[in-house]
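Reviewer 2 asked us to include a model.

Predict the structure of this chain.
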Amino acid sequence: MMRENPMQINTAYGPNFKYMSGWEYMCIDVANYYGLDKKLFEERIQWVYDNIKDLESKVQDAETPELYHKAVMTLRRVQRGEAVGNITYWDGCCSGIQIMSALTGCEKGAYNTGCIDPEKRMDAYSNTTEAMNGVLKRKGLDSIQVPRSHIKQAVMTSGYGSKAVPKKVFGEGEMLDYFYEAAHIIAPGAFNLMDELLGSWRPYALEHVLELPDGFIAKMKVMETLETRIEVDELDHATFTMEYKENRGTEKGRANVANTIHCCDAYLLRELERLCNYDPELVAEVQKMLEARLLAHTMGIQAEEATGDMVRRIRLWNENKQSSMVILNDINWSNYMQLPIDLARDVMRKVNFMLTYKPFPVATVHDAFGSHPNNCNEVRYWYKEMLAEFADSTILQSLMNQLYQTTDGVYTKLSNNLGDKIRGSNYALS
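Predicted model (structure tokens):
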């Protein structure tokens, strides 16, 4: 049984964007829980159509039987013409390496995490497994085949600065070196960035502080685990050891790697929610102000000097070159002429697209983004758009200057056009 309406390309969402209906997204949801999440969207949808009459009989064969059964039950309700409030979740494909690759302009890392090729669902863990086994073959160790499960465990943690888990998986000899060689083949930007972030640790500092493009300030205190002996007089002077944490600096530390990338991850999450679940009246009013600002520019009228909250918003724009929708709450008819023209254009670009759909809530769990199936196109669009903006931005340069406590540091990216390539992708979320 073939689908009546093949998947459509909608260039309004990107040059190769696969635009799907809510029904098709529900079919993908069923296929994902069955265990077909590594297939192309068309293949997942077609699998449901091929098995539409006996989906229930496949529950025990599903990768996650309970969630698969729930998805099938919801699909049946839609077939009966009932309205459903089902949430369909989409996962970032190795989101940590996705973000680091985007920030560093690394095309290899972006390719291997689904951010470039629009016609292939990538699997960074399988690709790293293949790369490591290729390294072993070149070393004359054909008899050794590393399983994907070992690679996944090591990659997931090492990308956030862990040395202990890769050592636990591969030991401290040549196998560990071969793993890192493979990792640098797959995502050189991410693994080079890891070392650069490790070098940002300030000995004996009590905290490391980062300000994100939306103005959110993350204070990451350095906590050390200490022990003390407790004696209880009422229990015949019995003693026990109690562990506690105290904010005190350490000479060395690895936390800046994970903390910095998690800060970017959390910022992406916050911003995606603002872009999807917006206040339509506020956005429509800001759109009018932006139109007035752009018109004034065409008439040769210069921007006014920034005052109040606009001073900080403009500073964050200049430092990061990525606008945050937090600014919508700060723009009014008294200060709209304070907006730099490039910032006004960037906000206008986003506002114009936001007003093409109705606001909707997004459920987020780390790198999983859930919405009603009818809104999945917008979720997928904004996720890849945020990654593209990471690639175009100077966010990483700003964060590194903050960590190293410098003001004039320049971060040179591996490429300067990765953002455009990410905008042509389909499988950053899958």
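The chain has 17 helices and nine strands. The chain has a mean pLDDT of 94. We have added this to the supplementary material.
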